[in-house]
Amino acid sequence: MFPVSCLRIRCFHRAVVNPPRLMKNRLPDPNAGTGHSSVSTCCHRKDTCHSNINFRGLGKERGLFHYNNKIFSPRSCSTSEVKPSCWKCKQLLVKTPSFFCSSCQTIQPPEEKTSYFNIMDCDYTFTVDTQKLQTRYLQLQRSLHPDNFSQKSVKELEYSESQSALVNKAYETLLKPLSRGLYMLELQGMHLEEGTDAEADPDFLLELMEINEALDEAQTPEEASKIGHDTKGKLADLTVQIDAALHKEELHAARALLTKMKYYANIEDKVKEKLSEFM
């Protein structure tokens, strides 16, 4: 025979670990009755029986409880990601991104939110290997170009056009340091705002004005070429500084340096225009 006090403790422990209202308010299976079975959930009961559980929230938030001072809910149970499958044969796509199905070799639609670095098979770095980038670009376009799908279905032709355009955009963005750096900032949620002249260093703006005036007054190709050579050197120095800032995750410093790079890149374009006038 157990004492009455022991029975009360055991009953209280069972009631707390499995309170009736938690059982009643269990979330419904989002896949029930839909025929989808690719998502699986896994909740470990041993977590719900841990001795450090704090039940302060049970009376206020239905279906929620505190575990080691952190909110835990049925929605935070681990879920396996839904892997994309081929639109034609329904086989799972192994690679990411998948341009073609490995089973039926059918072209696939572009995958949303895939970074340009993944598309071009590049390391996420500011110092991209441009030769490797060009090789990858040519390989993709040889297989994805719409001319290869003129005899295919309308859907396949549309997918080839979308994939080819996406590869073009990824290649052009990662090819040049300025657009590459701006894209890396965008991936981190930062953008280079328009009208940054007011925030720029006055000495830097004065330097830009003098360079532009000298370029306008250039009378020979040699004078314009010298300005272009000096500009290339400054762009090279900025490339090293931006790479270091991004490597250290100093995003604000990288943005300021990219602003300078944008102005020098404009001067470089003006030098090319000036040289074309002497031809």
TrEMBL record:
<dbReference type="InterPro" id="IPR036386">
    <property type="entry name" value="HscB_C_sf"/>
</dbReference>
<dbReference type="GO" id="GO:0051087">
    <property type="term" value="F:protein-folding chaperone binding"/>
</dbReference>
<comment type="function">
    <text>Acts as a co-chaperone in iron-sulfur cluster assembly in the cytoplasm. Also mediates complex formation between components of the cytosolic iron-sulfur biogenesis pathway and the CIA targeting complex composed of CIAO1, DIPK1B/FAM69B and MMS19 by binding directly to the scaffold protein ISCU and to CIAO1. This facilitates iron-sulfur cluster insertion into a number of cytoplasmic and nuclear proteins including POLD1, ELP3, DPYD and PPAT.</text>
</comment>
<comment type="pathway">
    <text>Cofactor biosynthesis; iron-sulfur cluster biosynthesis.</text>
</comment>
<protein>
    <recommendedName>
        <fullName>Iron-sulfur cluster co-chaperone protein HscB</fullName>
    </recommendedName>
</protein>
<dbReference type="InterPro" id="IPR009073">
    <property type="entry name" value="HscB_oligo_C"/>
</dbReference>
<keyword id="KW-0143">Chaperone</keyword>
<dbReference type="Pfam" id="PF07743">
    <property type="entry name" value="HSCB_C"/>
</dbReference>
<comment type="subunit">
    <text>Homodimer. Interacts with ISCU (cytoplasmic form); this interaction stabilizes the (Fe-S) clusters on ISCU. Interacts with the CIA complex member CIAO1 (via LYR motif).</text>
</comment>
<dbReference type="GO" id="GO:0044571">
    <property type="term" value="P:[2Fe-2S] cluster assembly"/>
</dbReference>
<dbReference type="InterPro" id="IPR036869">
    <property type="entry name" value="J_dom_sf"/>
</dbReference>
<comment type="function">
    <text>Acts as a co-chaperone in iron-sulfur cluster assembly in mitochondria. Required for incorporation of iron-sulfur clusters into SDHB, the iron-sulfur protein subunit of succinate dehydrogenase that is involved in complex II of the mitochondrial electron transport chain. Recruited to SDHB by interaction with SDHAF1 which first binds SDHB and then recruits the iron-sulfur transfer complex formed by HSC20, HSPA9 and ISCU through direct binding to HSC20. Plays an essential role in hematopoiesis.</text>
</comment>
<keyword id="KW-0496">Mitochondrion</keyword>
<comment type="subunit">
    <text>Interacts with ISCU and HSPA9 to form an iron-sulfur transfer complex. Interacts with SDHAF1 (via the first LYR motif); the interaction recruits the iron-sulfur transfer complex composed of HSC20, HSPA9 and ISCU and mediates the incorporation of iron-sulfur clusters into SDHB which also interacts with HSC20. Interacts with the cytoplasmic form of ISCU and with CIA complex member CIAO1 (via LYR motif).</text>
</comment>
<feature type="domain" description="J">
    <location>
        <begin position="115"/>
        <end position="187"/>
    </location>
</feature>
<dbReference type="GO" id="GO:0005739">
    <property type="term" value="C:mitochondrion"/>
</dbReference>
<dbReference type="GO" id="GO:0051259">
    <property type="term" value="P:protein complex oligomerization"/>
</dbReference>
<comment type="similarity">
    <text>Belongs to the HscB family.</text>
</comment>
<keyword id="KW-0963">Cytoplasm</keyword>
<dbReference type="GO" id="GO:0046872">
    <property type="term" value="F:metal ion binding"/>
</dbReference>
<dbReference type="InterPro" id="IPR001623">
    <property type="entry name" value="DnaJ_domain"/>
</dbReference>
<dbReference type="InterPro" id="IPR004640">
    <property type="entry name" value="HscB"/>
</dbReference>
<dbReference type="GO" id="GO:0001671">
    <property type="term" value="F:ATPase activator activity"/>
</dbReference>
<keyword id="KW-0479">Metal-binding</keyword>
